[in-house]
Amino acid sequence: MADLDTRPVPVAHPGKQRHEHAWLTESRHSTSEGVLLYVRCSSCGIRRVDLQAHPQAPPNAISHEIERT
Hints:
4-stranded antiparallel β-sheet, single chain, mainly beta
């Protein structure tokens, strides 16, 4: 009997290792919304764009993670 409140177990894509990204800032610039940070994972090379709206707040991802080909 299946429980309707359970969720499927996430499955990693074959051949891809999941890890916690270690983001390095490659460049940044100020905007009217805050500071845009262009970041890259030091381990796998995936990139994304973050926005830091306030200097004392952590940045938020505003783009999808993009694999460099």
